[in-house]
Design brief:
Elements lengths: L1 E5 L4 E5 L6 H18 L3 E5 L8 H16 L3 E5 L3 H10 L3 E3 L2
Parallel strand pairs: 2-3, 3-4, 4-5
Antiparallel strand pairs: 1-2
Length: 100
């Protein structure tokens, strides 16, 4: 996972570069929580372009980060997400999904 923070725009970008399963979702969760709490960005983006597999623990990890970001009154967006996950993120949790 690669993490970038743009101070000027207060934008935090997570580029996920691995499959998201039970073991990796815990590692991603810990790192994301740390980065979000340190920077308190205006917008958090999770880039899923290089994710080929994600199980329910990955979806749960993202929903938990969504709740954390909302607690700070900020926004979370998912970028370049595979079709099979879009409906859950967009319709159930109102997470903005953008495939640009």
């Amino acid at each position: 996972m690669c993490v970038d923070f743009n101070k000027k725009d207060k934008l935090l970008l997570f580029r996920i570069t691995e499959e998201i399963d039970h073991h990796s979702s815990e590692k991603i969760r810990k790192r994301a929580d740390y980065e979000i709490q340190i920077h308190i960005p205006k917008k958090v983006i999770f880039d899923f372009e290089n994710v080929n597999f994600m199980d329910s623990s990955g979806i749960g990890m993202l929903i938990g980060r969504y709740k954390l970001v909302k607690m700070f009154g900020r926004k979370l967006k998912v970028s370049k997400c595979k079709t099979q996950y879009k409906k859950s993120f967009r319709d159930v949790w109102s997470i903005k999904v953008n495939n640009n």
